[in-house]
Amino acid sequence: MLSYLHMQNFALIDGLSLEFFPGMNVLTGETGAGKSILIGAISLILGERASSEQVRTGTGQALIEAVFSVSQCSGQLQTILETNGLTLADELIISREISRSGRNTCRVNGRLVPLGTLKEIGSVLVDLHGQHSHQSLLKPEQHIFLLDEFGDEELRKEKQSLESLFELWQKVRQKLKSRGISPEERTGQLELLRFQRDEILKAAISPGEEESLSQRLLLLNNLERLLSMANRAYSEIYGGEEANANPVLDRINSIKEEMSSLLKIDSSLSSFISTLEEISSNLAELGHELFNYLDKLAYFPEEIKEIESRLELYRRLKKKYGTTVEEILCFAEKCQEEITVLENSEEEALRLEKESKALWQDIEQCALFLTKKRKQTAQKLELLAKEVLGELGMENAQFSVNFMERETPVRQGKEEIEFLFSANPGEPPKPLARIISAGEMARVMLALKSILAEQDHVPTLIFDEIDSGIGGKIIQKVAEKMARLSRKHQIICVTHSPQIASAANHQYYIFKEIAEGRTITCVNYLEEEKRVLEIARLLDGGRVSEITRKHAEELLNKARDL
Predict the structure, then answer these.
(1) Cα–Cα distance measured from residue 234 to residue 318, given in angstroms and rounded to the nearest whole number
(2) What is the predicted pLDDT for the residue at 132?
(3) What top-level class would CATH report for the domain 2-131+439-559?
(4) Parallel, antiparallel, or unpaired: how do β-strands 506-515 and 24-29 relate?
């Protein structure tokens, strides 16, 4: 609830502080005294736009500060504060600084916040009815929640069941989404992955094979030169280069034999003989190896085509799957891993799709039943609203709950709901937001608030001149409604009605006075005799007589029984 309001250099206010209390608080005073200024200050605290013209003449900046007791705050307020990084405490201090230069500063518990955040916080702290537009009942999106809260336990349980089903359905859909693809896309991916894996495995490639094949192809492409070289070398060793020439091996052996015959003459020739024997042995071995080499150089004519085809396979795979054989084989392994995941997820997806469809059927059935309960509840609310509006002097008023069906259910159900109203016979009900008369608006709000008092969680209700255009027995009914409503909510009311003023728990008198040649707005908290005199003034338009004084006392005594 609003517990404290401070204003400085705001309109006609030089410096003013007010303490508000639980229950019903009324503001009375002469017309033009500044009651609307106080309401305007509160509306700025609630996030309404400010104007530099609201800064008191001769000053550069206006300050408005309010303290709200939020020890029993709603979960909605807590969520708003946490979302905006604000700490929840027993008190919420909201301030607005308005500069004549146009600079506007908003703070919550000393922390700067944008105007939108202030408006969001204000919407769950205060409902302001009358000349201003800060009215939660004028927000169609709130009507469905108010109707549900007005409903019975069965309706609330059905709504909770729908929300639970919807939450389960969303989780299942999220699991399906986490699989990343639709069944059709999954089938396509599996086909591609299997093709890629099989293409690599079928190729039966291995590290080193490509290099070996490249070397073999190089050899085959130069086979003629290799054969010529090997035959010539073999011929020189065993047959001689020319027909009449002795083979190199024979000539080496002949020299060796000649040296051996001279060994007895010169023993130092033995080292030469050993060398010649080694050369002869090596040449014989080389000739044998050349023979084998020549034998290996034989090939089938189609071998080159086969090798080229194999190497082309390697080039094609590298172009598609990796720059090395190792990368290509790794790609095949990853394909297999993804295939395994998709095959398993396909089974899981089929199960989740089946579960999703079953949950959606349950959601549709639950939503239909919830619609039925809401329509039953709407009929009760319409009857009560008509009754209460009649008590408030609007016997011909029509109040109805309009149902607009959605194509598919959402978490709140299968319908949008909006409250409609018509004050005059023959006029069709229209959305509450289109009601023009402030007096009609205030009484409609009072009627609905009194009906929904148990369900409405906005702690403070402000009514600006709710008594406009009504009197007699009706104004007494309004006073009684407000008094009963103040048992569940803090009420702050600007009024010219003695009946409403006497029904309050706390009364403030707003007046103007001249100080140092300037007009300022002042406020006095009224108690006992001063309160009697103010109510007497309201009874007789400013004059106080013994009759009006006694009448005022009677009204106050009567109000104690409300």
Answers:
(1) 43
(2) 44
(3) alpha beta
(4) parallel
